[in-house]
Specification:
Blueprint (H helix, E strand, L loop, with lengths): L1 E2 L4 H10 L4 E4 L6 H11 L2 E7 L5 H5 L1 E5 L2 E5 L17 E7 L6 H6 L1 H6 L1 E2 L2 E2 L4 E7 L13 H4 L3 E5 L3 H10 L4 H9 L19 H11 L10 H8 L1 H12 L7 H6 L10 H8 L5 H4 L2 H8 L4 H14 L3 H5 L2 H15 L1
Parallel strand pairs: 1-10, 2-9, 2-10, 3-6, 6-9
Antiparallel strand pairs: 4-5, 7-8
Helix pairs in contact: 1-2, 7-8, 8-13, 10-11, 13-16
Length: 341
């Protein structure tokens, strides 16, 4: 059974609080690492990110050295041990084994004692050290090795599914470009366009949409001009769809005219154009003229009003100031259930 990204933090936290080790799997780029980083932040834990595929057994068992006439194993400084001081301002550690099932079986075997008994060699991990693992699935055609049956029974297995609603919520909180948000609202299945048999250089997924957002922040980047970069970020097929969506904006009433005549400006009727118009309202010019903008937004079908208001709230710098605008506060009062949905 799979879980959505919105469910993952609670599910993982339950497993961690029980002292067990969750193993989160999912397609490449789906957002596994971001979810685990968010859990570390939520529980005020120092995140220790370890790529198990890059380690040798000695890194996990400890380095052999002599102590008198016997050999002992010195644990790596990667691991917080019993008696170590907590990092300043933190309540514990979250040991994150990423690329867990990409590690060879010899390395997996060396981690048995860490996973089940919380020991590195002969040294116990810190009492406030929690462990989580993540990796891709066998079907993804990533570099993945099967887990031994001994390892399988040491983990609680959770598989992450694509969830555009959760991603959009995350994306608004992180101020992802409004044109990307509106496109995913329009084409929700494009948030994760992964096919393990694809022949393109890359594919659209939460990770690569975030890459495109970072590119869009450059003063030299323009969606219409930098098509090669877009194709090289989210894949040619989805890039063509996205650029076609962006092209709809050229057919819209200019924002300045819409603000000047909000009750007379044309309201689109095509679905893709309606989604495109919702992206316009994160513009600073719109945010500076919200009373007039709301007069136009309220002429849109309700579902597009909701998308437009979500964008405005996400990109506005001061929500309390926006709530002082009667048109905004009244709309939210009338439609708070739709806005939260």
């Amino acid at each position: 059974m799979t879980i959505k990204a919105s469910e993952a933090p609670e599910q993982l936290s339950i497993v961690l609080e029980a002292g067990l080790v969750p193993f989160l799997t999912g397609a490449p780029g789906i957002g596994k690492s971001d979810i685990i980083k968010a859990i570390a932040d939520e529980h005020n834990l120092e995140l220790i990110d370890i790529r198990l595929s890059q380690l040798d057994p000695v890194d996990l068992n400890g380095f052999p050295t002599l102590k008198g006439d016997r050999s002992v194993f010195l644990p790596s400084s990667l691991f917080p041990l019993e008696g170590d001081a907590l990092p300043e301002g933190k309540d514990g550690f979250l040991l994150f084994f990423d690329e867990f099932n990409s590690a060879p079986l010899s390395v997996q075997a060396a981690s048995y004692k860490i996973i089940l008994d919380k020991y590195v060699g002969g040294h116990k991990l810190h009492e406030e050290c929690y462990i989580v693992a993540a990796g891709n699935t066998l079907a993804d055609k990533a570099i993945v090795n099967r887990l031994s049956t001994a390892m399988q029974s040491r983990l609680v297995h959770l598989e992450l599914s694509t969830d555009h609603v959760s991603w959009l919520k995350w994306a608004r909180n992180h101020k992802i470009n409004p044109f990307i948000l509106s496109f995913i609202e329009f084409q929700p299945d494009r948030v994760m366009n992964f096919d393990p048999n694809h022949s393109e250089h890359t594919f659209a997924c939460p990770r690569t949409w975030t890459f495109l957002n970072e590119l869009s922040k450059s003063d030299r980047f323009e969606f219409e001009r930098n098509t090669a970069i877009i194709e090289g970020t989210i894949g040619e097929g989805v890039a063509n769809e996205f650029l076609g969506f962006i092209g709809q904006i050229e057919t819209l009433t200019p924002l300045s005219e819409l603000i000047r005549k909000p009750l007379d400006a044309i309201v689109p009727t095509k679905v893709d154009t309606l989604f495109a118009v919702t992206a316009m309202f994160s513009n600073q010019e719109a945010l500076d003229n919200l009373s007039l903008v709301m007069k136009y937004i309220e002429r849109l079908p309700l579902e597009y009003q909701v998308i437009a208001l979500r964008n405005i709230i996400a990109f506005g710098d001061n929500t309390s100031v926006m709530m002082d605008i009667p048109e905004i506060s009244q709309w939210i009062k009338d439609h708070q259930n739709e806005l939260a949905g």
